[in-house]
Design a protein that fits this description.
Number of domains: 4
Number of strands: 19
CATH superfamily of the largest domain: NADH-ubiquinone oxidoreductase 51kDa subunit
CATH architecture of the largest domain: 3-Layer(aba) Sandwich
Distance between the termini: 34 Å
């Protein structure tokens, strides 16, 4: 009989919190504590809240399966204290070896490092992973998918919130490969003509203008905004522009660093020094770039802290890219040597979510995107092969072949960190490549 590792690998379960790391590899260890992350980091996304309110038993069951597999003595269920309905729903299913931990309503409370530190008092090593301190963390959707896999169901849908300038904001299960254009139709369409999508939430999400972009196993939701909004304009800046402005305007006030969540936890990240590297050259400039590597890209520096509205976050992102390309990447051991103690003012510098939403100009979109259990199946899905960290799977279907929902389209590559891909609806294969496109058969739904 297959063990849990094989079951969740064959079902295509990956981390649903955003990174997409194959779950079978993440739980291939032994730890003391398993944490369910239901804190939902980004404002205006409601997928985790929706899952906890509607599927608490499945989430807890999936968590218990992982706890048994990794031999964990206890579990912690992290959720924001403001989400009373979620807390009530989950509490009804928690056994004695799983405790509930209520997070503050601050950003970025759902960050894995924050969840681990606040709920256990342990700090993930700089450049390291939670298992090094005896912890495994999974998003609540991942635990739901683990339980579904144990029941014989593969991952074919992702739950995501659609919010912003749409007629009917909603949170629903969408088939993997469904285009953003079709997702928008389910929300009644955009209420404005000239818009962009911010995919993944207002803080860390990316601007998407191509509506053929498909839903993946790591999708969490998107927000529709006018191209003229301040947030859209800031997120649409190109690299040349934000570097030019940063070089000319940064006065080294260091607020970006003083408000950085990772800096406050003692990690070696100092955005103001990375900004200073724009003004310098040679060996000194090189030493400044090292302070970007521990950046988690949360965007507090750019969208909250900087009084001049510069973009330290993207300067850190591009600096990390260049550091890798130039073989200057520091080892975990080197980062740990640069780490310090947790900042004594950390607990006073959390960013309140309500104030953050106002700062972002999103206060008109605070109404919850309600859960819609059923949506209309699209005419086609275009399923990407690359939906996870690791090696691409091998396609095993042919063009013109009829497939059923849940059928394997691409097998995980042997002896590699790889995951299979499954059909998210019945239909006919019409194209193969980086995406596998399935057309729904006429008369089916």
């Amino acid at each position: 009989m297959p063990n849990l590792i094989e079951i969740i690998k064959n079902a295509g379960v990956v981390g649903a919190g955003g990174a997409g790391f194959p779950t079978y590899q993440k739980i291939n260890t032994e730890v003391e504590i398993v944490i369910a992350n239901g804190a939902e980091c980004e404002p205006l996304l409601y997928k985790d809240v929706t899952l906890m309110e509607n599927y608490p038993q499945e989430i807890v069951n999936g968590m218990l399966r992982v706890m048994e597999h990794v031999k964990a003595k206890r579990g912690i269920f992290a959720v924001k204290g403001k989400n009373k309905k979620s807390i009530e729903a989950i509490s009804n299913w928690l056994p004695q070896n799983i405790t509930l931990f209520e997070m503050e309503d601050v950003y970025p409370a759902g960050d894995e490092y924050e969840v681990v530190y606040h709920s256990t008092g342990r700090r993930i090593p700089a450049g390291g992973l939670p298992f090094e301190i005896g912890v495994v963390v999974q998003n609540v959707e991942t635990f739901y998918n683990i339980e579904q896999a144990a029941q014989g169901n593969v991952v074919t849908h992702s739950i995501l919130s659609v919010h912003g300038d749409v007629k009917n904001p909603l949170t629903a299960w969408f088939p993997i490969g469904m285009s953003y254009a079709d997702v928008l139709k389910e929300a009644g369409g955009a209420t404005i003509d000239d818009f962009i999508l911010i995919d993944g939430g207002p803080m860390m999400g990316k601007v998407v203008s191509d509506l053929s972009t498909p839903v993946t196993r790591t999708s969490g939701g998107f927000i529709v905004l006018s191209k003229e909004t301040h947030l859209a304009v800031r997120k649409s800046q190109n690299e040349k522009s934000f570097k030019r402005v940063g070089k000319s305007a940064c006065d080294q006030c260091s607020l970006c660093t003083e408000m950085c969540p990772r800096y406050l936890m003692g990690y070696p990240i100092k955005p103001h020094l990375v900004m200073r590297s724009l003004l310098t050259t040679g060996e000194y400039s090189k030493t400044l770039t090292y302070w970007a590597q521990a950046c988690c890209e949360c965007n507090i520096c750019s969208l909250w802290a900087c009084p001049e509205e510069l973009d330290p976050r993207n300067i850190c992102v591009t600096t990390k890219r260049d550091t890798k390309e130039n073989n200057m990447w520091l080892s975990a051991e080197q980062l740990q040597e640069m780490s310090t103690e947790v900042h004594p003012l950390k607990e006073y510098r959390g960013v309140p979510t309500k104030r953050l939403v106002r700062k972002l100009g999103l206060q008109n979109y605070t109404k919850k995107a309600p859960f819609q259990k059923h949506i209309k199946e699209p005419e086609k899905v275009s399923i990407p092969l690359q939906q996870h960290i690791g090696t691409l799977p091998d396609i095993i279907v042919k063009q013109g072949q009829k497939v059923k929902k849940g059928q394997v389209l691409a097998e995980a590559k042997k002896d590699a960190l790889s995951m299979p891909i499954h059909a998210s609806m019945d239909g006919i294969i019409v194209s193969l490549g980086e995406r596998i496109t399935i057309n729904r058969e006429q008369g089916s739904n």
